[in-house]
Amino acid sequence: xxxxxxxxxxxxxxxxxxxxxxxxxxxxxxxxxxxxxxxxxxxxxxxxxxxxxxxxxxxxxxxxxxxxxxxxxxxxxxxxxxxxxxxxxxxxxxxxxxxxxxxxxxxxxxxxxxxxxxxxxxxxxxxxxxxxxxx
Length: 135
Description:
The protein is mostly helical and 135 residues long. It has helices spanning 3-25, 48-55, 61-73, 83-91, 105-113; strands at 81-82, 116-117, 123-126.
């Protein structure tokens, strides 16, 4: 290998390293929005399974509960939904990649966080703070 070939290889390696640094550390360009990201309103026109898959993935149980409640009320604050209805819909999507197993802790924690409220025994409704869940 002669000197010119070696210099060309070194220059190529330096360019590859610079490209890798940009990929790893960024280049201060705005990142594209990710499906279901915090900067867009949830799409309630989706069917319930698609909605859950898009917006509940990676969320905690209480947040998944609030998102399902939001779907059932079409994001209307103050509309009561019976807990049994929420559990019934949840049980239809108990696969791990959707909602998993329902836990009675979820609605209580959602209420504690202020995302949901319970005006009467066995019913839940959204509060104005529910949008924190998908942000």
